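Are you able to produce any protein sequence you like plus the matching backbone structure tokens because I've never seen that pairing?
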Amino acid sequence: MKRVIPILIMVMTAFPLWAGFGLSNVVTKEIRPPSPAASKTTTKPKTALHTKEVFYPYTIHTASWQASALAEKDMKTKSGQIKDLFITQIDMGASGVWFRVDCGCFSTIKDAVSRLQALRKAGLVEKDAWVGSGVPYTIDLGTSRTMSNAGSQINALKNKGVDAYILKENNQHFRIVAGAYPDMISARPFYDVLHKLGLDPRIVKR
């Protein structure tokens, strides 16, 4: 009996130590931090969006034609001496679809009228060319970081029968747009034409 008691004491003393050792291993395994490779996360760099600060609601209407071929011919004739010409296709309801040969994008009506007067003085536009009220809306067809790439996009659109022009926002932001419209409703018919061609048009402010 005397021998049994010391043995029991030794066994009971050793059991908590063994149990603690086992639990210690389990806890260490569970809270082990992940390896640097596993914890490393990758994030895609955010693309800086251009914040538009200047708008161009005015343009010069140099002529209007009911046939797109005549508008193209007129623009080609004038483009040798006048920069920033483009064609706006607009549905005038009962009057039908017209093709305007427009010139320039101006932030103020004063700038537009001043340019018109200079063109008239030089004999480069007809006397009935006009500025009129604002045409603040256009149809956006994409952007480019370089003028040369924007020009390539313009040529590609031309091959599809779409007249577009470049609106420079800054040295790294060139917008490819089509037309100049007084409101979103008047831009909608040509928007539908572009959408049917498989393009991704958006009606926005110039």
